[in-house]
Amino acid sequence: MKFTKIVSLLVFLFCIKVSSQITDFNHINFTRAENIAKLNEGENLNNLPLLTHKLTSKLRTDVEKFRAIYYWVCHNIKNDYSSFLNINQQRKKYKTDSVAFYNWHNKYKKKLFKKLLKQKKTVCTGYAYLIKEMAFIAGIPCKIIDGYGRNTASNVNTLGIPNHSWNAVKLNDKWYLCDATWSSGYTNEKFSFLNDYNDGYFLTSPNLFAKNHQPIDKKWLLNTKQSNQQFISAPIVYNTTFKQKITPILPSFLNIETYINKKVFFKFKTFKSIDSNKVRLVYFTNNKEKRLKINDLKYSNGMMSFNHIITKKGIYDIHVRIGNEIITSYTITAQKSLKNSSI
What angle do CA 289, 186, 177 make, to 5 degrees? Predict the structure, then answer.
């Protein structure tokens, strides 16, 4: 009996330490699943069981079935910016009364789901609901995860009311994370939704996913440990970070205090090889980009590292760029060291 318990405990510990991510399915070709989703483009949502059957019946594995569902949702459902603004306004109104906000939101959900079914437009709650329902019909365990989404305007330095929803899906007895809302596209400066599929949010590494997702129930961080304080004080990441599948490791904070002539170390875990000639460290002044010197750039076994020495006192908003895409941002305050001080 004791031996059985020990084995069960070891299996449990092994499972929670193993990272659930897309690389688990490198042997799967998703082309057929994606093509089936494309063939059913424009289908309505009036009969979810029928739509789900069309998307999954000819596929063999659960991960292929889920891929077809996810791919279809991301390419056929539009983000509803007007509803987002309404929810955001109410979130601000009830920022000191979360109970009142949840009561309002529960009533508003009915309108959201009607709009989803009739116009195929929704916010994160609708995306997560649709993914969950279609996965359930296909016999795939899936949950809606509520929590905090982080970007340049939300949950930076302070934590607000929960503002985002995504999914956890169980495949081959392991839980995986995905976010169909942020996979589907973005709203431009004219407030028009543009479909721009980002595969980086599909079965994402939990360590990367946690860079801009913090669940209310911490068990859905999976193998990652992260406090709310660590979440709101971390560097800013972007959709391009997920598209490139790059996980920032160092510096671990958005706001960094250092001294002039002291090295600041940068380290990233990468999903694919990176051309070192495309790596840039930049800041902007008078709307012009200025390049900073990168020292000791190294790339080995999926890890990229380098350092930079700030030579002048000041506050710098620094960005790591790969090619034309900004991956992460930091604010570095450099002061005179005691050694250099005239005091």
Answer: 105
